[in-house]
């Protein structure tokens, strides 16, 4: 059983302005709201009148004649948004610092340009230990191949003469044979 009080005597439930599903609902003499047409010419007439009167909805500025007042936004950059943007900036800076200085890529590739650049930055900011100066200024890599042989590999001289990499491979195989 509901706890609702009964309606007062003579109370009639309110009717909607128009119920299309109710056959007893008569069409109002002024028409339904959906049938109203927008007064197209009225707006043009109003616009012309406002131009003649030089009336604008924005108030004129007292300080700058011929200009209008600029309405100021209220709390367009609230404390929450300021804090959220600060948190994003701090988080991004933390990820960048972590990926550059803390993340250990030492074992992966110490000859990479990124690692050498990171070592240089660490040397400038914090100083470096005894091992890292060699990583900051790496030794020049030796070139494999003979510099005096012309670049045309198809020449008979180029094909007959062994290169430095061939000599290194022969020495490695020779050392393996001596160990066995």
From TrEMBL:
<protein>
    <submittedName>
        <fullName>Uncharacterized protein</fullName>
    </submittedName>
</protein>
<feature type="region of interest" description="Disordered">
    <location>
        <begin position="1"/>
        <end position="38"/>
    </location>
</feature>
<feature type="compositionally biased region" description="Pro residues">
    <location>
        <begin position="7"/>
        <end position="17"/>
    </location>
</feature>
């Amino acid at each position: 059983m509901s706890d609702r009080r009964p309606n007062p005597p003579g109370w009639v439930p309110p009717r909607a302005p128009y119920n299309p599903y109710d056959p007893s609902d008569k069409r109002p003499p002024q028409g339904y709201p959906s049938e109203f047409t927008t007064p197209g010419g009225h707006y043009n007439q109003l616009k012309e009148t406002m131009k003649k009167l030089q009336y604008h909805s924005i108030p004129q500025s007292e300080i700058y004649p011929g200009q209008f007042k600029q309405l100021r936004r209220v709390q367009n950059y609230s404390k929450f948004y300021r804090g959220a943007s600060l948190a994003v900036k701090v988080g991004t800076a933390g990820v960048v610092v972590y990926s550059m200085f803390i993340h250990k890529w030492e074992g992966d590739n110490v000859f990479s340009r990124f690692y050498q650049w990171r070592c240089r930055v660490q040397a400038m900011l914090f100083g470096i230990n005894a091992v890292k100066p060699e990583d900051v200024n790496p030794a020049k890599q030796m070139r494999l191949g003979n510099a005096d042989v012309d670049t045309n590999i198809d020449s008979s001289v180029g094909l007959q003469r062994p290169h430095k990499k061939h000599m290194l491979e022969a020495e490695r195989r020779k050392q393996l044979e001596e160990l066995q």
